[in-house]
Every structure is written in C-alpha cells, then in structure tokens.
C-alpha cells in the first residue's frame, strides 16, 4: 500500500523543517536575546502573510476539495491585528512594512493558493500546522521573554481549539485527499517551496535584528 500522504510529507519535509529551526531567529526571540521590536516585526510580517493566505481561503471556500481545510477557527488575522494594535499602537497599519522576502512569499502565495487546491492546501498546511505544533512552544516562549500576558501574543492562541486534536484531524484529512501520486508530488513540491519562503523571511528578520 502506498504511504499515507501525511507520513510522506513528514518524511520529505524533515530537512526543510530542520533548516527552518536552524535559522536561529525564532530561538533568539524565545530566549529573549532580541529587543521586543524584533518580535513586533515578526508579528507584522505574519500580518502580510495571513492577509494573503486568508483571502485565498475565502476564494477557496467553495472548492470541492479545498473547502474541507477552510476552518473558521483557524483564522488569524483578527488576532494579529489585536497584537499589532498592542505592539505598535492604534496607527499600526502606518507603522508596519513588508520585508522583501515577505513580499516574495505573498506573491507566490497569491499565485499558488488562489487558483488551485494543491497550492492552497500546501500553503495552508505549512503555516497552520506549524502554528498548531511548534508555534505553541514559540507562543509560550515569546510571552515569557517579553512579559506578555494575554495581549500581544493572541496569534499563538487558538480559541476553542485543542491544537493536538486538530493536528490529528488535519493529518487524517490529508490522507483522504483524492490526489494521484503525481498530484501528491506537486503538493509536496509546493510545501517545500513554502518552507523556503518562510526561511527567507526569517533570514531577512535575522539580518535586520542580529
Ligand atoms: C524554532 C523554530 C521551530 C520549532 C522549535 C518547531 C517545532 C516543531 C515541533 C515540535 C513540531 C511537532 C513535530 C511532531 O509532531 O512530531 C513541528 C511541526 C511542524 N512545524 Fe515546526 N518548528 C519551528 C519552526 C517552523 C517553521 C519556521 C515552520 C514553517 C512555517 C514550521 C512548520 C511546521 C509544520 C508544517 C509542522 C507540522 C509537521 C507535520 O506534522 O506534518 N516549523 N514544529
């Protein structure tokens, strides 16, 4: 029997995930080595990414395959806007700017995720499963490092969701996708691209703040 897609994914993206972890910017944040402005900058970059991703989710909500992945409980934009208001003040939208790698990521995301379920699920998986897994550790770390208590780190908190249960369910959904081996390859290729784009954003942030 062919490998389940969720298992293939884990295996084929293991080294990309290692590279993302090895970048060091997120570790420097959770250990409090960077000023809070660096954390506020990461939050700003997230806003640009999730604006593009969650707009694509609205476009894909009627797609017969992609719609299974459109969970209203995952939507991050309102939490990010609350965090930005807390971190940058009421005029936050005038005070944030996309880094060059963020602009590149958003361009790819709009191209890949609005037109086809394979691209959409690839970008959706890379961000939200990351947020529900390692993101939970990062959220606790930044709250501790920057003395946040409720405000400023809402992005990491999924109200009404058990992250472990949703991650398990998400993997089951991946395993029921009606994709041919060729389409599965295309999906994994786009997930690897999404990892590269995330690492490039972290590289830009690291260059700016370390
Ligand atoms: C300091 C940085 C990071 C840490 C400590 C971290 C940690 C983790 C951990 C502990 C898991 C759970 C693994 C498991 O269930 O066996 C995970 C999963 C995941 N992470 Fe990360 N991560 C980091 C950065 C990233 C980045 C930058 C991305 C890309 C956006 C990412 C994407 C993912 C994805 C997609 C999964 C789900 C894998 C799967 O179960 O299919 N991670 N991460």
From TrEMBL:
Signal peptide span: none
Tagged with keyword Iron: yes
GO biological process annotation, one example: response to oxidative stress
A Pfam cross-reference name: Heme_oxygenase
A Gene Ontology molecular function term of the record: heme oxygenase (decyclizing) activity
Record keywords, A-Z: Heme, Iron, Metal-binding
List of residues binding heme b: 10, 17, 125, 171
InterPro entries per the UniProt record, alphabetical: Haem_Oase (IPR002051), Haem_Oase-like (IPR016053), Haem_Oase-like_multi-hlx (IPR016084)
Protein name per the record: Heme oxygenase
Species name: Paractinoplanes tereljensis
